[in-house]
Amino acid sequence: MTTIKADDVKRRDFLQLTAGGFGIVGVIAAATPLVNSLNPAKDTLALATTEVDISTIPPGEGRTVTWQGKPVFIKHRTPEEIKEAEDVNLALLGDKEIDSDRVKRPEWLVAIGICTHLGCVPTGQKMTEARGDYGGWFCPCHGSHYDTSGRIRKGPAPKNLAVPPYEFISDTVIKIG
Amino acid sequence: MANKERTPFENPVVEWVDSRLPVFTLMQKEYGVFPTPKNFNYFWNFGAIAMFMLITMIVTGIVLAMHYTANTELAFDSVERIMREVNGGWLIRYIHMNGASFFFIAVYIHIFRGMYYGSYKAPREILWMLGVLIFLLMMGTAFIGYVLPWGQMSLWGATVITNLFSAIPFVGDGIRTLLWGGFSVDNPTLTRFFALHYLLPFVIFAVVFLHVWALHVTGSNNPLGIDTKGPQDTLPFHPYYTIKDTFGLLVFVLIYALFIFFMPNALGHPDNYIPANPMVTPAHIVPEWYFLPFYAMLRAITFDIGIPFTDIVFINAKLGGVIVMFGSILLWFVLPWLDTHPIRSARFRPLFKIFLLILVADFIFLGYVGMQTADAKLFGVVPLIYLGQAATAYYLAYFLVILPWLSKNEKGRELPASINEAVLAKNK
Ligand code: HEM
Ligand code: FES
């Protein structure tokens, strides 16, 4: 009675492993809805769109609007700024994108105003603010410089300022989202 | 079991309880007669001081939570209300606010003590690793706590730190979304941070319990770093060290009180008295002082790591910075295996001592670098970023190169035969 056959040991090991395995599966299954509840809620996700009247923004100036709780830069570019953005040698860029892929109309650049490094809001929307070495935006947090197309040119940020989905509803109104 | 070895207490009430639940026997054994090396210096006070600070934080925190509102619309005003309207609220908040700083002061000194006297070496590896875990939990708790008042630094500090997670390949963005509960640091973030800020100190408390348990298994290290060999090397914990700990604690609390009452905002940042504004980043974001050295290491990595002269990048600058910042603390976990030199105390390791003291200076310098803007220059000439990179390199080299090398090559001085002999020789 008391002697355990080698067979038994294997059976027992198997039972213990399966029981332990199912235990872990159970814990994960129980944790999933709890963790998932931390993902964005439905009302947070509800994609709000923002309509902006751009007729009052003079060339060279920008306006910052809110979309999904994030700042969006709308910049009315001057001819010089457009030229600068278009003439850049692509080889010099960290995140290679041509200007025409980033705008719908060359005079208007629309980009999410969040530095792709660690999420600060770069300065440069107003003429009085620092615009960095490339005349676009400058992120004061860790020194990222963006050009007039919102492309990263210098500093720790890995990517260009993101372009949100938007469309021109008329010549003076754009809808973001 | 334990009941059989129990010596009965004279007081009948104590005895009645103890024979059913031997808490008095336990206290007597662990804090009364507990044999403690007789050569402690004041560095050995900081464990008790840290414990005092943890309790202070929990007590003041719970009271603050009774007045605080975790909602982006209301949080800032609720903290101002604590400051102006709640009876003595300003005092409770200043105790809590400066308490975080003084908790870190105590713990940094406590960690330095461990490094200097080799307390992390066998048989205290688990004790040490639990300590590192406590430090990590403290950093998490303090970071999250700083978000609660919902000032400009709260918001932007949280933004920068949560964005760090997005550097992790594949899962990074998902983790960041779980932290945020939305598209940026916002109301869902604040409410979950408050819940965690309430929870984590109790987790810390539990790990501290394990830490002290491990301590009472191995016994304390001491300034000589040699093992106790018998009763002639030790003193009972009470009254000798209860008194010494109390005295040290009072001096510490005196300085702490000086800050609370006379310069309560000296260690903070004025921008956190501006309500959070998601549209405007402050010109200069700095974390709390106790994070500065690690922040400097994060910013030191400004270059991608890949194959030179090609576009192939293995680790981009952002991920590199994150790895170095977290790695700089994770290295402490394996410290007992990086420094395998048989002598514990720096007193008997002249080379080790020099390199360790340089590390301390290096760490403080990194703190200075972390405080400055990204493009700052030392004396207006040397870009600080290069000095920060050099200091980061020394920090990493200390753990990864210097310690292993010294372990093999440092000769060390002759150790005294026992604590008792060394103490008597000194007092002659
Ligand atoms: C490990 C222990 C703790 C640390 C290091 C810590 C750290 C901090 C820090 C740095 C702040 C920001 C202070 C400020 O700038 O105003 C804070 C705020 C706060 N903490 Fe803690 N805390 C701890 C424990 C607790 C506990 C146990 C509670 C209880 C719920 C708590 C409740 C609060 C509340 C309500 C606030 C917001 C009010 C305020 O900002 O003054 N804390 N904490
Ligand atoms: S967040 Fe912009 S440079 Fe770091």
Describe the structure.
- Chain A has 177 residues and is of the alpha+beta class.
- Chain A has 2 domains: 1-39; 46-176, Rieske Iron-sulfur Protein.
- Chain A is 25% helix and 23% strand.
- Chain A has 3 helices and 9 strands; from the N terminus they run ααβββαββββββ.
- In chain A, the strands form 3 sheets. Chain A has a 3-stranded antiparallel beta sheet, with no helix packed on it. In chain A, strands 2-3-4 form a 3-stranded antiparallel beta sheet, with no helix packed on it.
- In chain A, strand 8 and strand 9 (173-176) form a beta hairpin.
- The longest helix of chain A has 31 residues, at 6-36.
- Chain A is elongated.
- The mean pLDDT of chain A is 89.
- By secondary structure, chain B is mainly alpha-helical.
- Chain B has 2 domains: 41-281, Cytochrome Bc1 Complex, Chain C, CATH 1.20.810; 286-428, Cytochrome Bc1 Complex, Chain C (Up-down Bundle).
- Helix content of chain B is 63%, strand content 4%.
- Chain B has 17 helices and 6 strands.
- A two-stranded antiparallel ribbon of chain B has the order 1-2. In chain B, strands 3-4 form a two-stranded antiparallel sheet.
- The A-B interface holds A 35, 38-41, 44, 64, 66, 68-71, 114, 117-123, 139-143, 155-158 and B 156, 159-164, 177-178, 180-184, 186, 188, 192, 278-285, 299, 302, 316-318, 321, 373-375.
- The structure holds protoporphyrin IX containing FE (HEM) and FE2/S2 (inorganic) cluster (FES).
- Residues 115, 117-120, 139, 141-144, 155-157 of chain A line the site of FE2/S2 (inorganic) cluster.
- FE2/S2 (inorganic) cluster binds next to loops of chain A.
